[in-house]
Amino acid sequence: MSTQDTETRILDGSVWVDFCEELKTLGALLDRPETPKDPKNRALGYRYLTQILRAGLEATVDHADPEFPAFYRLADETKKMLNDNPDNYYQNCVLAPRFDYRIRGRRGTTRFLSFGTKGSSADAGAMVGTGDLDSSRMIFDADGCFEILVSCQEQPGNWLPMTPQTRSMVVRQTFGDRSAERPAVLSIECLGRTRPYSTHDPARLEASLRGALGFVRSTVTMNIDWMERYRKAHLNALPEDDQVLCQKAGGDPKVHYYQSYWKLAPDEALVVRFEDIPECETWNFQLSNYWMQSLDYRNHPISVNKFTAHY
Predict the structure, then answer these.
(1) How far, in Å, CA of 143 to CA of 123, rounded?
(2) pLDDT tens sequence across 37-76
(3) pTM value?
(4) Which of 24, 128, 133, 290 gives the lowest tally of CB atoms within 10 Å of its CB?
(5) Which of 261, 224, 256, 227 lies closest to 240 in space, CA to CA?
(6) Residue 191 CA, distance from chain mean position
């Protein structure tokens, strides 16, 4: 599309109208035969769409320039997806492999800090790992400060690899008692910028809005597909999940995932027994709704981990 065509679509409102029309169609995702049909779960589903849309807009509109990156939170206390961990403080950042980056930070009280670069894939919504670095392999000074170089070429010290497929980064800060601990403070800069900062290029607006809608569609579709798989194979059990599939969806390579689908009658309860727990940094058991959103951990105890459990 030419610059003139783009400007015409902005001025006559076509960009906005088309965005709103496609957004309307995304509500049909909740009508798939597999989804719950009761009012409460349907209301949660519509809320879920608004939260995923907010996340998508932050990613594709507000934080989409790899020459001027910043950490933002794709998943947080009010934007939840794909069984987000209530013990984690998530951060995201856009990257481009043609640049190198420097991360500076001061570690808080987080027990486990991990950085993972993610790449594009032919699979919709996939976030293939292209490099990782975690606190067990990092160098910190006496005050907990650190630097990380992010690049395709290996660097001395703390190095987070990229590949030509890298497009983004996910940071996970994992806590034992999130309410009493401090997250690490992070900043990132692009090395070798080629242009001054621009608040927004009108020519990119339409593609950015379409990107947000694509993020909603791929995330919600993956959510429902996974829940149907759990309903068929994991009903009232807690088996290991497909680790390769979890990694492709952006999972941490140091995390081993178990997933379930529970159905209880009003007079039934769950009893989950943990035996032979291996020595590890941490583990947790959490509750999520059908839309793979952790329950409201701001106001309710919805998880137990290695440090809060009674043995």
Answers:
(1) 42
(2) 999 999 999 999 999 999 999 999 999 999 999 999 999 9
(3) 0.93
(4) 24
(5) 256
(6) 25
Q: Hey, what are 8's tokens? A: 């015409």
Q: How far apart are CA 4 and CA 21, in angstroms?
A: 23
Q: Which amino acid is at 262?
A: W
Between CA 179 and CA 182 the distance in angstroms is: 9
Helix (H/G/I), strand (E/B), else coil: 179:
helix
In one letter, which amino acid is 31? Answer: D
Of 264, 267, 262, nearest in space to 235 by CA: 262
Q: At residue 45, what are phi and psi to the nearest 5 degrees?
A: -65, -45
CA distance 156 to 158: 7
CB 138 within 8 A of CB 112: no
Q: Which pLDDT tens digit goes with each residue over 147-197?
A: 999 999 999 999 999 999 999 999 999 999 988 999 999 999 999 888 888
Residue 146's φ and ψ, nearest 5 degrees, are: -155, 160
Residues 299 and 254: their CA atoms lie apart, in Å, by 29
> Is 212 in contact with 56 (CB distance < 8 Å)?
yes
| 150 strand-pairing partners | 101, 160
Where are the extended beta strands (E) located within the chain?
88-94, 100-106, 112-119, 128-134, 145-151, 159-161, 166-174, 185-191, 284-286, 303-305
* Degrees to nearest 5, angle at CA 185 with 184 and 186: 110
- For residues 249 and 126, is the Cβ–Cβ distance under 8 A? yes
Residue 223 contacts residue 51 (beta carbons within 8 Å)? no
Q: At 273, which helix (H) or strand (E)?
A: none
